[in-house]
Amino acid sequence: MKKFSCIALAVSLALSLLAGCSPSSTPPAAPAASGAPSSGTPAAPGKVYEIKLVTSNPSTDPTVELFYKYAEEIKNRTNGGVEIQVYPGGEILMGDEGIEAIMSNAAVITFNDLDVLADYVPEFNSLCASFLVDGHETIEKLTQTDIYRQIMEKADAANVHVITGDFVMGARNILAGGVEIYSVADAPKLNIRIPNVASYVAAFDAFHANYSAIGWGDGVTACETGMLNGAECVSQRALTSGLYEILDNPVYSMIQWRNAPVGLEIGNGYWTSLPQEYRDIITEEFSKCAVENNDLLAAAEDGYVQQLKDAGVKVIPYEDIDIDTFKEAVRPLNEAMPMFSEVSAAVSEIMAAG
Fold first, then answer.
1. pLDDT tens track for 288-299
2. ∠ at Cα 120 (264, 125), nearest 5°?
3. Is 309 exposed, middle or buried (0-12, 13-18, 19+ CB in 10 A)?
């Protein structure tokens, strides 16, 4: 388990500088009895819960715009009892600081791939395994299975509550200057930016690719200076970041190596301190947010890729790549993950049913 003494101090200082990290000091309203999700609007609150939602996605990102929309819905449905304050663009509490905030039961929600929290819930690695799923509909169905619920119970016991774990940001591919990827044998030609997440590092080690596990902004700067020749990313980021304009002879190789669930996570101790009716409303609204997000991004995927082509990026389609060579490279990693056999069996059943 990671040691966070320095990070904890940084988190404490960051939160102390931001108003509203804790509920207001007015007397609390009594929690509603647990049961079916509430569909009505609670009475005027005796306490206002101010919760920060932190994400590295920029303020103009479609997902962030949905966060604002559904935060307002939550505020309306709780009659002002819950205020979700969205902090985009990595403004506060990114990386380990965000993890420490939720593990310390601060009033903070993080937006992360589930396996970012695999130090606490190792089974999250299996839900995010390479080449596991074929798209957002499969992930949405996976979250309704018994195996997913079992993993979420383990997460709650580890003090990680996933409000909703079925955001899907799209398949992840490789954008690189002058490097065409047709099989895993081409991966050593890469020298790209990848996220500083253990599962990403393990996968690109297995591909024998050259990489730097750093932040997106640092990666773009490294591409500008010629230290790196690209990045691993979804098509939306490949287009909207403008990275392709920096690279010489940009190529987007659609290996679709990862299509993983992204979640809104909060400390379970803080979560259970909220009135049950508020928890129901937050869960309902962010679940609707995830579905709208997934439909929106899936519908836009072809358009993003076409715009890359129109801008002069060479796109190598999935069908032209020997994907099995990549799958074989990461197979031992997947098989070593806790509960991977159960998760993959559930996914296979979902995909077989169509």
1. 999 999 999 999
2. 75
3. exposed
